[in-house]
Write a structure and sequence with these properties.
Rossmann fold, 5-stranded parallel β-sheet, 11 strands, 40% helix, globular
Length: 322
Amino acid sequence: MKSILLIRYSALGDVVLASGLVAPLRAKYPGVRIEWATEKAFAGLLEGVVDRVIPFSRKDPSSRAAVLLDVKGRFDLAIDLQNKFWSMRVSRAAAPKRLRFVRRTALQALGSLVGRDVILDEAPATELYAKAAGLEASGPLQVRVSDAAHARAAQLLPEGSWVAVAPGAAWETKRWPAARLAEVAAALRADGHRIVLVGGPMDGELLDVIRAGCQPEVDLSAESLPVLAAALSRVKLLIGNDSGLVHVAGAMGRPALALFGPTSVRRWGPRAPGVALSLGLSCSPCTNHGGRSCPLGHHNCLQKLEVVTVLMRARELLTSRL
């Protein structure tokens, strides 16, 4: 086995979790060359993790076509962790031997279209990926950022007890109310910690709530993803929802307090020293990735998670790292 293509291009958390395959693949196949096809937005986190990153844009047909030409016949093995129609085309073009992460049978996939999705709750996502890749176990998560990104982060976050707050998540049902997160951040600021706000363009209204509620000392919402990752390497704790930034923090060696509601803690929870905080209701998990509304109409899994509970756990984690 001389060359392997990894295919995982969305979303941020999945890409970071998939990086746990790189070390065990190198151990299993000494000297192997590994390349990775992924979205341009995530390429900056993978440069140096693998031998080459193949960035592209899913929204650009010419970009997708260029990937198919790039990979054609160049690999011994393709590992498709996306398992979509286009990723399977890339896999078939790239290598004679192919492995893929199959989430559902064909019948289950049809059921998911009408709201009858099978919930994957039996193992961490990293171990599901490892099994799909023919590995015994996943390895460490790996994210690399440039010296320039680290320098920018050091400029923005000088020495101090920084706590990052991340109010966003891809789906509404995964978001703890931003006003409550602002209360937690304000209390931690009163404790003497310095608050840094992290998020992206999709989190605009949520970020505004945090700004109004706790006045963070640093706002990174306009910075690039590599700078966000470098900044997370400088914080004592990230507090956020079940989202990709939780796993970026873990890959950068920092703990996250991840607030879980409708999704699987077992599958998506952060690795130690990170902690998943969940009420553990009998109706959770009810979805693999979140949704626009609670199937039962109450959203108790996050609505009943109190500020005092989150604040107490955050203080415990911060005290243990001082």
